[in-house]
Amino acid sequence: LGMHIVGIAKWILDEANKQNYDVIHFLSRDGFITHKVFDILRKVYHKAPKANYLHATRKSLIPMFVNNKADLYSLSEFMDITSQTPKKLLTMLEPISKKIDFAEDKYRSNGIGDMEKRFSNIFEFYSFMDIYVEFQYDAEKAKKLQEDFRNWLSGIIGDNDATFDIGYSGR
């Protein structure tokens, strides 16, 4: 694993130098070790870009992927839905959700029996999303959250910076 990480860090350095980037932002958690190796290697490079570790997990960024209702159904491309439960998803989506009384009862009465049971297939996930979209998705909250996030991020990531992330499940 060590030589693999060194190879990735060296490749990032070589590409960053070609592109003349100012800063490489390594996203957590997968970027942590690569960031450390990059910092060591950059000391021997002439004009190497700076490095920054940006604490932004994939799960914390999920609400940022949602620009409209259709995007909610695409979340299955960013996560293994069979490791998720309706309750976990509601927690992740809370920043872009309407507050409704007795939310779990609403899901149960619409066919989602056990909020703690993992989705066993894409159809269960889609059924859950159908209910979420109808009762809880708040497009205005989503838009506001994305604007706030963009403003925050623009103060960190410059025009001539790049980000690094391993990707979901190494893909």
Describe what is shown at a glance.
It contains eight helices and three strands. The protein has helices at residues 2-19, 31-41, 58-61, 69-73, 86-93, 103-109, 122-135, 139-154; strands at residues 23-27, 50-54, 162-164.
End-to-end Cα distance: 17 Å
Using only C-alpha atoms, the radius of gyration works out to: 20 Å
Mean pLDDT across the residues is 89
How does the helix and strand content classify structurally?
mainly alpha
Count of strand segments: 3
Series of H and E elements? HEHEHHHHHHE
Poorly predicted spans: none
Percent strand equals 5-15%
Please give the share of residues in helix: 40-55%
Strand order of the largest sheet: 2-1-3
Shape: elongated
Number of helices: 8
Explain what the structure shows:
With 171 residues, the chain is mostly helical. Helix content is 49%, strand content 8%. It has eight helices and three strands, in the order αβαβααααααβ. The chain has a three-stranded parallel β-sheet with strand order 2-1-3, covered by helices on one side. Helix 2 (31-41) links the parallel strand 1 (23-27) and strand 2 (50-54). Helix 1 (2-19) packs across helix 2. The model has no long low-confidence stretch (mean pLDDT 89).
Could you outline the blueprint of secondary structure elements for this entry?
Layout (H helix, E strand, L loop, with lengths): L1 H18 L3 E5 L3 H11 L8 E5 L3 H4 L7 H5 L12 H8 L9 H7 L12 H14 L3 H16 L7 E3 L7
Parallel strand pairs: 1-2, 1-3
Helix pairs in contact: 1-2
Could you name the key traits of this structure?
mainly alpha; 49% helix; 3 strands; 171 residues; single chain; 3-stranded parallel beta sheet; 8 helices
